[in-house]
Amino acid sequence: MFSSDQLSLVFYAAACWLTGLVDLVLGFSVGITGQWRRLHRNFFYICVTVCVWSFALSMQVVSDSERRAWILSLILHSAVLLIPYVYFRFINILLGCWYRQLLWLGWLIIGVLGWGLYSGYVVGGVHSPLYFRYYSSPGPWYPLMLAYFLGYSVFGFVLVLKARASASPQQRNQLNFVLAASMVGFYGGSMTYLPVYGIPPILPTVIVVPLYPVLLAYAIVRHRMLDLSIALTRTGAWAVVYFFVLVIPVTFSIALKETLEQLVPEYWWLFPVGLYTLLAACAPLAAGVASRRVERLIRREERHYQDTLLAAASGMTRIRNLDHLFSLIVRVLTKTVGLTHAAIFQLDKDSTDYVQRKRRGSIESEDIVSVLADDPLVHALETTRDPLLYEDLGRSFIEQHVDDPTIRRLLAGAAARMQSLKAALIVPCFVERRLLGFIVLGNKKNRAIFSKEDLNVFRALASQAGLAVENALFFQEIESTHAQLFQSEKLATVGQLASGMAHEIRNPLAIISVKAQALRMQNELPPLGELMTVMTDIEGQCQRASDIIRRLLQFSKVQKGNDIIDINHAVEETIAMVNHQISLDNIEIGLKLSDETPRVVGNLNELQEVFLNLMINAAQAMGNKGGKIALSTDVDKEMVEIKVADTGPGISEENLRHLFDPFFTTKDEGTGLGLYVVHRVVEKHVGHIWAASEVGKGTTFVVRLPLATEKDIQEQEEKTA
Asked: What is the pTM of this model?
């Protein structure tokens, strides 16, 4: 049977023992993980001193020997003298600021108080206050020790608060963990001094002392991966659940002890033990569910923008325009995540440097438009192949986590470049082993940190962006190749028309020459009326030659952009260019135009190339045997249909299937690119083309193009206004 005082004593001793165990495990774990670097080593010292204090206190309060309790009191107070000093030194290392005079003064105070401790001036002995078997009793110097303990602890706390005020989001998050650990640890630890003066401690505060090393360890090892609000949410959920696991059985034991002893005198303890076992079994599940639900509420906004970024990443590969792609990326990042600014740097193939392609957001920074290929930042990205946080490249972080001096210099150079870019985070874009570019991200406007989930989303976004850029570059090269192909095919067509065009120009020139010679041979000027007739004929022939040259030049030049095209007029202009040459082969051209005016959005040169190719192909198919080519236009709902029919030999069904394939031809000297170019142009204009043929009777090509809407016409008029 246990009394309430006995249960309180067990609870108090168990809490101290748990604190010592947690400190011992974490001290070695963090020290080994950090390869015993200075910050990790100092954390280990904190854990060892707190561990010695906790174990000694837990054994002292349950000791059955006054002498043993006195020895344990000396041991635990020796640790108490070291705790504020190693904590203050830890803060100095963490912040990179050294108060050397205070550190030397601390050793002096420890020496003096240590002598006073073993001389009986700090601790006067042990006594049995409250429900403790033994507890330290204060000596005359005990208040001095408390003043030293409080002074160094509070000053370290103040240093953290001052550094936090001007810290970046990542460093602020680390300092938040340190502040939380300091408040929890020192508040919980200070409660253990109350029994020295006979004041009962607040039992629940003792159980939170193990959180002190846990939060400090997280601040050192992984503070960038978890926001303090999330850490406290998880910790709070577990603390609340396990508080009830401990409190409920104890409460029931105290309240129902007499009743249970009457019912089952020898086995009354089975009820609290069973209840404790049941609650302990359910606690992990309850704590996990509670922490996940609360965390989901806290991170709802973050989850939203992460889902938006992933959705945007999945659609990037469908974008073929690089400028549009880069604009989308920086706009989504700045607007969705809420960043101060974002920029994209892409590898330039000509200079092999990384050139800024797009930037969004206002920030005062150096006007950097390119980063050299041998810049430390580029080397760091190629070496790590992972996002670089500016906080991870800080001087103190590098000193604490990197041993290789070469890597230190590289990361220091990368940090300098990130500072000039005002970059809080840089995410590389790799395609296979090649660094295609990188995304520069500023801080979040709400000053929140970049979480582990953020970095995972940014990695996915950068990976998709790299593929999208490669895809867009590939399509750009294809479009460039097609443009060259179209132009070469056009020039080849011009070459085919050259002889006919030359003859057409020669005819009006010959007429002009004859008229001029006739006038010259006359001894006197003819009457005015006759002279005016001759001059009118000469002017008409000049206009005829000018029209021929105009059509040829207009067709030959490279035209960029789209206009509103009158299909009837385009067909008539095309016939005018080829009519003479085709007529030499005894081929008749028939034309039937739509009564309506079919207008489309398109490129006049490219559409004329389509009609010209189809007409020349039809003429070549019929050869010098003669025949007829019938052209017609017709409006069908929202489409215009252009037909080019000939009375040639027709095309076999086998060849019809490959008609628009590149390099497919049945001609001895053909390239097989004419109809391929025609097909590509029609597709570019969101149209369709097909051919119907019957061997021995002829072939008909049908081109269908979408009509321009009123909105298209209005927009074009506004552009030309």
From this structure: 0.50
